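TL;DR need structure tokens for one chain.
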Amino acid sequence: NKAMLLAARRLTLGQHSQEAAGKERRATETMQRGDFEGSLTMWGEAKAMLETALSACSGDPDSMADKARLERRMEVADWAVRFSKCRVQLQSADAHTSAGLVRDARQLLASAGEDDSFPLQASLSQWNTDIDAVDKQ
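>> reply
TL;DR here they are.
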């Protein structure tokens, strides 16, 4: 019975991890196109799938490596949700609100820039340029 439960958990882990990977790819592409509303939705969905996969790891000592990789992916998804939300809010912000959002965006970009293994590294300089343009308006 315990072996069947473990097998079911591993199946759930694999399925949700794969589904999340597809969502993460599409969310990244959407984000790189500058569609932050779309990426906010997709990254949120990816996070939910990652959370399900992470819960399938609990209590399984054999899935510790999976858990570490999933936690890393969750960090990236959290970052992407926060950055996308900030960019969406910037689209309709007044001058007073936009200063704080620009500051938040810069902090998010700086924190990601410190991590050489950050998967969205290639887009950071473009997003910095975009934020500079918003800041000068």
